[in-house]
Design goal:
Length: 145
């Protein structure tokens, strides 16, 4: 197994990545600026990407699950994020992956039936909210994506 680093994924490599992710029911996010692929015989067997401080598009081929490739991919993505000055990382995944990513140092922030947001700092979002000065009166914000 060898690792391939793409900054960002383009051309032939992007097409191969999109094909691999589609097999896992995922789409490539064009905002990703760094991708690491685990290759075996020039075929992608695992991948993950980074956009600022968010880990995305993480997948391991069904044939290679249970071989520790998720840890390899997450380690490479964390290293790149830290090199970029990002220390508080987030990732989106399916709720069934809670235990796996929890074992790799990520903590749940929010969950729906279909999606799970995790962070690399225990209670990082809660700590951020708790540090906001309390004001009297009505204060609000709406964040829409």
């Amino acid at each position: 197994m060898e690792l391939q680093y793409l900054r960002p994924a383009r051309g032939f490599y992007l097409k191969e990545l999109e094909k691999f992710l589609a097999e896992s029911g995922l789409d490539f996010d064009p905002g990703c600026t760094f991708t690491v692929n685990a290759l075996e015989d020039d075929e992608i067997i695992a991948t993950g990407s980074l956009e600022k401080n968010v880990l995305k598009c993480i997948a391991v081929s069904e044939k290679h699950q249970g071989e520790g490739l998720s840890a390899t991919i997450i380690t490479a993505l964390r290293s790149q994020a830290f090199d970029n000055g990002e220390e508080h990382l987030f990732l989106f995944t399916k709720p069934k992956n809670l235990e796996m990513f929890g074992g790799l140092g990520f903590y749940p922030v929010a969950k729906t039936q279909d999606a799970l947001l995790m962070e690399s700092v225990r209670a990082g979002c809660d700590s951020f909210v708790a540090a906001i000065p309390k004001k009297e009166g009505t204060i609000g914000a709406v964040v829409v994506n």
